[in-house]
Specification:
By secondary structure, the chain is an alpha/beta fold. The protein has 9 helices and 14 strands. The strands form 3 sheets. The chain has an 8-stranded parallel β-sheet. β13, α7 and β14 form a beta-alpha-beta unit. The longest helix is centred in the last third of the chain and has 15 residues. Bound molecules: ligand RRO. The site of ligand RRO has 16 residues, from loops.
Length: 317
């Protein structure tokens, strides 16, 4: 019998599969759907800010057969509402499905506000957070590239909250030189940063609507974050590069381009410990996890691989 159990930052996971933040995880109803669906090992919320946000004007999401584009603009219910949902409902299911928060903020002070609130509350809060330092779609926002100074400041802040464990969601970096620079900084904070998620959507893409002959998205001149099949080779490369540069104690969450069990398996070979699913979850709904788990098990069984740790890993070139 193939065993696909694993862990993320020490939390036991029934499978290495979870949603990508932003995909069907903004409301309590959406998050509860995950609890009832076999195949998921963990879940993460939509990136949340201190105060609720409406997000960008619609249409802000588009789909083709190869993937998706979005400029959602960080629409979310705000930290207080997610804390309420966790305390009242999600924590009850946390043993069956560990659910953690994705945190986002415009600057380090806003991150500090959120973390102070989480640290001071008497309520039950998740032990683990994915910190999103890569939102590509804010109107008038940055260019979607990683800002190493901002990253260092955020890490300096996380260091003051040793009671929590953190992951960092990064944009695609596209080069070994930049990956090394980012990893050198992150490795200094291995006591609080337990995983790196690579990557957020491909920033500033453009897709044209086949009916309208115009950009699919209204905000930002039609530019948005691209996910799905378009991303798979980028994700494999990001995961492979980060695995070579990060301390062994820092896990990697691969995100981008997973459609079938073979895509999950490939990301595990490239060095991912856990795999997130975005565009496929948007298109197919949460039952994609049931299918992906079965397909992954089938591939492992055919290769006579009985546990995830036995999957052969790529070595450095
Ligand atoms: O809400 C968004 O527009 C968004 C975010 Br915060 C993100 O991290 N990645 C993305 O593709 N969209």
């Amino acid at each position: 019998m193939v065993d696909v159990r694993t862990n993320l930052a020490g939390l036991p996971l029934a499978t290495p599969l979870m949603n990508a933040s932003g995909c069907r995880c903004t409301t309590l109803d959406e998050l509860l759907q995950f609890v009832w669906t076999p195949g998921m090992g963990a879940a993460v919320t939509k990136s949340m800010t201190l105060l609720a946000r409406e997000g960008n004007a619609k249409p802000r999401y588009g789909e083709t057969v190869h993937g998706t584009i979005n400029a959602n603009g960080l629409c979310n219910l705000g930290l207080d509402m997610y804390m309420h949902h966790y305390e009242k409902t999600l924590s009850v299911f946390s043993e069956a499905l560990p659910t953690f928060f994705s945190l986002s903020a415009m600057d380090v002070r806003a991150f500090e506000h959120m973390l102070t609130k989480l640290a001071k509350t008497q309520q039950d809060v998740p032990p683990l957070f994915e910190v999103n330092v890569s939102c590509p779609n804010l109107v008038g926002g940055g260019n979607g590239a990683l800002d190493l100074v901002h990253l260092s400041r955020v890490l300096g802040l996380l260091h003051h909250y040793p009671q929590f464990r953190f992951g960092l969601k990064l944009p695609p970096l596209f080069s070994m030189a930049l990956t090394r620079r980012a990893a050198d900084i992150i490795n200094l904070y291995a006591h609080v940063v337990k995983f790196v998620t690579c990557s957020n959507s491909l920033p500033k893409g453009l897709l044209i609507g086949p009916e309208t002959d115009k950009p699919m998205l209204a905000p930002n001149g039609g530019f948005g974050g691209v996910g799905g099949v378009y991303m798979k080779p980028v994700t494999l490369a990001e995961v492979h590069r980060f695995r070579q540069c990060l301390d062994k104690g820092i896990q990697i969450v691969g995100c981008g381009g997973v459609v079938c069990g073979r895509d999950v398996y490939d990301l595990l070979v490239a060095g991912a410990d856990v795999v997130q699913v975005g565009s496929t979850l948007m298109h197919e709904g949460p039952t994609c996890f049931t299918r992906l788990e079965l397909e992954l098990r089938g591939i492992m069984q055919a290769k006579n691989i009985l546990r995830l740790a036995q999957i052969p890993k790529l070595t450095a070139p």
